[in-house]
Amino acid sequence: MSQSTATTCPECAGSLERDSHEMVCTDCGLVVDTDRLDRGPEWRSFADDDRNRERVGAPLTHSRHDRGLSTEIGYSSRLTGRKRRQFARLRRQHSRANVASKAERNQIYAFTEIRRLVSSLSLTYSVRDQACALFDSAQTEGLLRGRSLEGFAAAAVYAVCRTNGVARTVDETVAVARADENELRAAYAAMNRDLGLRTGPIDAREYIPRFATELDVPRAVERRATTLAAGAAETGSTGGRKPSGVAAACLYAAAREADHPLTQRRAADAAGVTPATLRNAYYALD
Predict the structure, then answer these.
(1) Directed axis angle between helix 102-120 and helix 149-163, to 10°?
(2) Nearest of 206, 251, 243 to residue 225 by alpha carbon
């Protein structure tokens, strides 16, 4: 197919006319442009029904145990009585046959939990897919033996946040997870040890926008806190300290400079740390 924007014939300068597929010169008959693409539906149905003309399904995804390739028996309002009961039994048996082993059943449960966590933490689809792939790797390596599925689901989400530099703390993850902190940390340690996660400390600046929104501080205070956090990262004065505590300390320091009413308790609560942790980071900024 060629696309032409000419308005006159390149051979005789005659006028052009387009029919269904071609652009033709009305004087010399030269075919200037042709377009044989049919942009209509792939096929037609003359029956009065609700059949779907699409031949494609949902894209492949790591968040499903079968990558989203499984099929399902649909529903129809035209079935009545005996046929409807028969297809209900077929759907039930088909659903059971989709799970071939206990490992797949565990994946289905864990992937469902991961999707719930990602939604609760307002994370992206990319984090969801990476967390499911990480859980799959942990299961393949046999790390789940003797540990809870909920703990590994939560640890997978937290680990992906760490590797991608997304600011989510352990406390925030545990608050919406069905596992406690000990289960999450045990699963995270196992994956970090055996799978070699590329994790590093999260920059305190990643936490500042969320904490600033929660504390309802002015934009000027938020910008100043970001500057303080950047300076602390360059000098290394807050090295080894909890990034969320450093972010809260920067917000507190910026609020004091701007005479904005912000107490240590409120800043510490927003970051999920103790006032003592905030004070230690605040003194380290000086």
Answers:
(1) 50
(2) 251
* Tens digit of each residue's pLDDT (9 = 90 or more) over 113-129: 999 999 999 898 889 98
Q: In what order do the strands lie in the sheet with 16-18?
A: 16-18, 22-25, 31-34
Number of Cβ within a 10 Å radius of residue 80:
9
pLDDT-derived band at 177, boundaries 50, 70, 90: very high
φ, ψ (nearest 5 deg) of residue 261: -70, 100
| Residue-level length of the chain | 286
Query: Could you read off the pLDDT of 271-282 as tens digits, one per residue?
Result: 888 999 899 888
Better-predicted residue by pLDDT, 66 or 86: 86
Find out whether 65 and 108 touch, Cβ atoms under 8 Å: yes
User: Left, alpha or beta for 272 (phi > 0: left; psi -120 to 50: alpha)?
Assistant: left
Look up residue 233 and give its amino acid.
A
Higher pLDDT, 41 or 181: 181
Alpha helix ranges (H) inside 74-218: 81-97, 102-120, 125-140, 149-163, 170-176, 181-194, 208-215
Q: Which residues contact 121 (CB under 8 A, 6 or more apart)?
A: 157, 168, 172, 173, 176
